[in-house]
C-alpha cells in the first residue's frame, strides 16, 4: 500500500532537502533567520517549534511557494524556487490545510487535482483517486460535498492529494489537525508505510508524542532559528548525565557510590548515578565491588517534551544548553 517513489536505496549522507543561511523578512518582521536545515534521504524528520517559530514559512520556502529574502534552498537536488518544475512532481505536500472547491465532492476535487499531476496519465486517474481515498479512509464519504466535511475529513482529503502518485518526498504541515485518536493512528501508519518504502517525510507538528513515535530525526525551531537538529535518539541522549541502576538495596548503593565520590540519589527502582565525572562502567564496578546487587543499568533518557522545553525556553534561562545545539548523524 506504500508509495514506491523511494525504491532506490538511500545513499549514506545524502540529503533530500537542505537550506543554508535561510532568511525571510515580512514588512520588517523577521520570520526565519539563518536557518541551516538538513533532511536526510529516507528519514522521517519532525519539525517542532512554538507558534511563530518559523516552521510553516520554512516549509513554504522549501516548496518554492515563498521566495527567501536571503539564503539557499535545495529540494531533491534542485535549487528552489528556480528549478521547482524539476522537483515538485516528486513531492507530495499538505501545507496550512487543504484548499478545495466547496461545492464539489471529495472525489471530484481529487480528480481535478489528479489531472494536474505530471506523472499520471488520463487513464490512470480514476484508479489513483480511488486508491488515495481508500488509503486515507475517505472511500465511503468520497461522494459528499467538500463543504460538508469536518476539519478532520478535510485534512484527510488534503493528504490523499499528496499521495496520489508515488513520491520521493512527502511534506506534511500539521497533518493530524482536527483528527480524532483513531485518525491520528491512521496517519502514523501512513507515515510508517512511507518510511518503509524509503520515502523521505518531513512532518511539522506540535504533538510531541506523535513525533517521538513516528520520526527518526528532529529539527527544533525557536524564534525563526534552528536550535537543534539530528537523529532523534541521539538528541534525546545528548546532555543526559544519569545512569539508572536497578537494585534491591538502594540505600547501600547510595552509600557505596558516595564513598567513591560519585554523586547519586535514590530512584524508584534503585539509584540514579551522576556520570558527569564518572563513567557508567566505573559506577557499576564500584557497586559490584561494594557488594551491591546490580540487576540492570541503563542510561537515563530524556523525553522529547523535556528536551523541547529546554530548547525553547527564554534565552535568559537557556544558559548551558550549547551542548545540545546540534547533533549530526
UniProtKB/TrEMBL annotation:
<protein>
    <submittedName>
        <fullName>ABC transporter ATP-binding protein</fullName>
    </submittedName>
</protein>
<dbReference type="InterPro" id="IPR017871">
    <property type="entry name" value="ABC_transporter-like_CS"/>
</dbReference>
<dbReference type="InterPro" id="IPR003593">
    <property type="entry name" value="AAA+_ATPase"/>
</dbReference>
<keyword id="KW-0067">ATP-binding</keyword>
<keyword id="KW-0547">Nucleotide-binding</keyword>
<dbReference type="GO" id="GO:0005524">
    <property type="term" value="F:ATP binding"/>
</dbReference>
<dbReference type="Pfam" id="PF00005">
    <property type="entry name" value="ABC_tran"/>
</dbReference>
<dbReference type="InterPro" id="IPR027417">
    <property type="entry name" value="P-loop_NTPase"/>
</dbReference>
<comment type="similarity">
    <text>Belongs to the ABC transporter superfamily.</text>
</comment>
<keyword id="KW-0813">Transport</keyword>
<dbReference type="InterPro" id="IPR003439">
    <property type="entry name" value="ABC_transporter-like_ATP-bd"/>
</dbReference>
<feature type="domain" description="ABC transporter">
    <location>
        <begin position="17"/>
        <end position="248"/>
    </location>
</feature>
